[in-house]
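Section 5: illustrative case.
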């Protein structure tokens, strides 16, 4: 079983967060990886719901806050809804995925976890007025 390190960074290279996933199959698609990551971070949030969510993408009715997103009230999140939002964000260039030394272009690409053991998510900031 493979182990994978996930790291979030800003476009300027600043570190935001990291996550380690264990007991993974030897390969999976980028879509499976993305959904697995979101499911894990939502499960961590749902174990002790609060007004703060430190995840890849913004939940419905949340606002940007230091280190993540602020929810209107503490609540459990639906990991499938968050995963769908993450897929749309990837398609809309909301973030870039780097696996090894290459940028991922498609959610259907296969990741060999025996070779690639680190994934970097670079969060892109939308420009105002553009």
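Designed sequence:
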């Amino acid at each position: 079983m493979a182990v994978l390190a996930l790291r979030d960074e800003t476009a300027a290279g600043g570190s935001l967060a990291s996550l380690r996933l264990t007991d993974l199959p030897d390969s999976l698609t980028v879509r499976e990886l993305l959904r697995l990551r979101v499911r894990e971070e939502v499960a961590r949030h749902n174990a002790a719901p609060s007004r703060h969510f430190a995840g890849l993408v913004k939940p419905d009715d949340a606002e940007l806050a230091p280190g993540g997103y602020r929810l209107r009230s503490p609540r459990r999140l639906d990991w499938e809804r968050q995963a769908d939002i993450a897929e749309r964000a990837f398609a809309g260039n909301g973030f870039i995925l780097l696996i090894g030394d290459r940028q991922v272009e498609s959610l259907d690409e296969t990741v060999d976890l025996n070779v690639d053991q680190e994934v970097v998510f670079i969060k892109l900031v939308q420009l105002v007025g553009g």
